[in-house]
Design goal:
Belongs to the Ca(2+):cation antiporter (CaCA) (TC 2.A.19) family. InterPro entries: CaH_exchang, NaCa_Exmemb, NCX_ion-bd_dom_sf. Its main location: membrane. The protein has a domain of 326 residues: Up-down Bundle (A middle domain of Talin 1). Helices cover 58% and strands 1% of the residues. Strand 1 and strand 2 form a beta hairpin. The radius of gyration is 32 Å and the shape is globular.
Length: 579
């Protein structure tokens, strides 16, 4: 029975990141060292038939490919083996001329040829028969971290390159120490502190995501899922915890709602729009989309009910906090059930691939096969006329060869499960980037009050629009890149999956953390404006993804709604925000 490949949030994000990081396009987060080595595997014309799986004897009516002067008279170029002998006159010791009999590999008996072909197979069978039935079964590795062999050995040079110099966006890493130094100076301009630390967190978030994937590659499905749940939205979690410690509950709530809106409207809208510009429609897994829509509806209901309960009653904040904490526990249970549904019981549904749609050709591009037709049409197959038994010309035979993939690989940009960092380097990168993000987030949160009071920016705009850019910039670029490549299942998995993780895991987790800190105002009672825009966004997204297909107009609708929310949050009165 064929084993269904495991599909979870970690695998989806890793596949999407692998595609986007190896893309040679506009993505600033792509890995500059990650080149596709498959392009170096060229078509060896010396063994053309062997590579294409075509027997030269099937090309009847055509002359064998041979040198016109020095080749032997008989047999095709496939018949010339290493031990072939040709009639060469020689003189023996008695002075008589001896002509040895002609013998080529073509004259070998079928039994001899079969023996040569089966030599390795028979040896393998002997080894297999010698094994016990227990030894034939692959042993399950129960270790927490498994060993993964890299394609090339780890060196100091390539580890530094793959961590610090792997992307052009890492140029912004210089802002991290500068931002920390500026934040430590007492009388420094707080706007400068905010801007520099804001910029510094963007490459640190991408580095944290990369290190998490490298560590999860060495774990099992369960631990990998826990790592993804813990560090998949680590930047939002760190910023929210820092704001919660400072008592900035409004920033915590708006940043979480803003992260959901950013993924649902901006990211998915850009995926639909740019992916559908040169395609009539794009398709994605309907079951996955409908499941996501149901979970998003439950998440918004879990926020609306405590909000209405708080706004329409005169009960003390402790009652709303108790309701929110109970609801948060239920949401965490739902998220766990969703992971079990995705990993165990219905992983075959999530592993289904959606229909692919070819791109419309560009106006200035050559139509597909133009170069190949130019090669085949005028000259033919080595200039040799002829037709085979089925009536197909040699030109058609060559056309079939050219139409096939010359490298023998499928046209897939997905990166194999090959580790790029050693476990020690990956763990060090994870810890180091987390610590740097924590410092930058602390100084970022400290400067928010000054920025909102003197900079003319409301906390609603800062939380709903600006802060989500910090943690989601890398995933934004990843989702749009894979959508342009018509990998919509990966794009939907990144965008909607991140939204569900924030709404079903991160928000209730922070309510529980606030419970432990004794903060009753950290509850599920959000601002009415936030609840309204979240409800409208989820409603529109559920309508658009329910049919399992998209086009550029749907993407434009999502982006326009996001712009409307951004404009409203910019003019949102600061004094209406309830601390």
């Amino acid at each position: 029975m064929e084993r269904v490949p495991s599909v979870n949030a970690f695998q989806i994000k890793r596949q999407a990141h692998a595609v986007s990081r190896s893309d040679a396009g506009w993505n600033p987060f792509r890995h500059v060292w990650n080149k596709d080595h498959r392009r170096s595997q060229t078509w060896d014309g010396n063994d053309a038939e062997a590579q294409r799986g075509i027997n030269p004897n099937d090309l009847e009516g055509s002359s064998p490919i041979e040198h016109s002067h020095t080749a032997p008279a008989g047999g095709s170029f496939r018949d010339m083996g290493a031990d072939a002998e040709y009639p060469v006159e020689r003189t023996d010791s008695s002075g008589e001329t001896v002509v040895p009999s002609q013998r080529t590999t073509a004259d070998a008996t079928g039994h001899e040829a079969a023996g040569i072909r089966k030599r390795k197979t028979d040896g393998d069978l002997e080894k297999t028969e010698g094994l016990d039935p227990e030894e034939k079964k692959p042993r399950k590795d129960h270790r927490m971290f498994k060993h993964v062999e890299p394609k090339e050995p780890f060196t100091t040079a390539n580890q530094i390159q793959r961590t610090l110099l792997n992307s052009w966006i890492n140029v912004l890493l210089v802002a991290a120490p500068i931002g920390i130094v500026l934040g430590a100076i007492p009388d420094m301009n707080q706007i400068a502190v905010f801007v520099v630390n804001f910029i510094a967190i963007i490459p640190l978030a991408a580095m944290l995501s990369f290190a998490t994937e490298e560590i999860a590659l060495r774990t099992g499905e369960t631990l990998g899922g826990l790592l993804n749940a813990s560090f998949g939205n680590a930047v939002e979690l760190i910023v929210a915890i820092m704001a919660l410690v400072k008592g900035e509950v409004v920033i915590v709530q708006t940043s979480l709602i803003g992260s959901v809106l950013s993924n649902l409207l901006l990211v998915m809208g850009m995926c639909f729009f740019f992916g559908g510009l040169r395609r009539q429609e794009q398709y994605f897994n309907v079951t996955v989309a409908q499941t996501a829509a149901s979970l998003l509806a439950l998440a918004i209901a879990a926020i609306i009910i405590p909000t209405v309960f708080d706004k329409e009653t005169t009960l003390p904040p402790s009652s709303t906090a108790a309701l929110s904490r109970g609801t948060s526990v239920i949401l965490l249970f739902v998220y766990s059930a969703y992971l079990y549904f995705q990993l165990k019981t219905h992983q075959d549904v999530f592993a289904e691939e959606s229909q692919k749609v070819p791109m419309r050709p560009s106006k200035h591009a050559l139509h597909p096969g133009a170069i190949k037709k130019g090669m085949v049409g005028p000259a033919g197959l080595m200039g040799l006329p002829g037709r085979n038994e089925e009536g197909s010309s040699n030109n058609e035979q060559l056309q079939k060869i050219l139409n096939a993939n010359p490298t023998g690989h499928e046209d897939d940009d997905d990166e194999s499960e090959d580790p790029q960092l050693s476990f020690t380097v990956a763990m060090g990168t994870l810890i180091g980037s987390t610590v740097l993000i924590a410092f930058c987030a602390e100084f970022l949160v400290d400067s928010i009050d000054y920025v909102t009071k003197s900079g003319g920016i409301s906390k609603e705009f800062l939380g709903l629009i600006l802060l989500p850019i910090v943690g989601n910039a890398a995933e934004h670029a990843t989702a749009v890149t894979v959508a342009i490549k018509d990998k919509m299942d990966l794009a939907i998995g990144v965008a909607v999956g991140s939204s569900m993780q924030v709404s079903l895991f991160l928000i209730p987790l922070l309510v529980i953390i606030g419970w432990g800190m004794g903060m009753d105002n950290m509850n599920l009672s959000f601002d009415l404006f936030q609840v309204a825009v979240l409800f409208v966004s989820v409603l529109l997204v559920n309508y658009l993804i329910g049919d399992g297909k998209s086009h550029w107009l749907e993407g434009m609708l999502l982006m326009c709604l996001y712009v409307i929310i951004a404009v409203c949050s910019w003019w949102y009165p600061a004094n209406e925000a309830v601390e």
